[in-house]
Amino acid sequence: MMKLALIGDPVEHSASPSLQRGFLEEAGIDGDYLAIRVPSGEGGRTIRRLREDGFTGCNITYPLKEEAFEACEALTDEGRRAQAVNTIFFGHQTLGTITDGIGARTAIEALLDEPVALKRIGVLGYGASARAILAELHDTDAYTFVWGRDADRVSAACNIFEARPWPPENPPEIVVSTLPPEARLPEELVAQLRAADLVMDANYGSRANLGRQLGREVVSGDAMLEAQARASFDFWLAHLDRVSNT
Fold first, then answer.
1. What is the largest CA-CA distance in the chain?
2. What are phi and psi of 165, to 5 degrees?
3. 65, 119, 120, 131: which one is catalytic?
């Protein structure tokens, strides 16, 4: 039986259980996927408990992605570069990766109906999801720009991922917001986002409220979530096969 879980706070709104149970059924695998509310500071202990209880793996959401990174014994290149993980496989080691980047890129390319290479893409925020998206876009030759309130953290993200600080005179045409639903943006940035060709909010469902603040159409993060959830499921299956063949 394939035992999976989502940990974070909040998790009540999450569409991940429905998506992952669908993937299990589609693959003909006997398993289940639980959503477990885990507050900040309890991530490492919970991950160790899931391993002891025989779980195959887990997803990690806010605010535990950095705690999960610290709890891993091995990391993929994606997890190492983002300094955060949203997917763990319990094999010979606790192996972590992050699928936020491929989820965002897949969603943007589906909307554009073309690759993101050479596109000018702005990322709002510099947290775990933002870093994963910047890494993915860097690897796919997009030009990236970072906006955030902390200049030092913007500068750090730009240095790591060869991005540039937000250009006030020539803002990017495509924007991905990784900010929390309660974030309020300065008026100058709101005006620039209203003029962008495409704005995508990484939040989804009732938490995707950026469009109301901007007064324009904003793509919710549903497609991004589905793509990153699929990437997590494929990650678990691939490593299950490797473990069973050793």
1. 57
2. -60, 155
3. 65
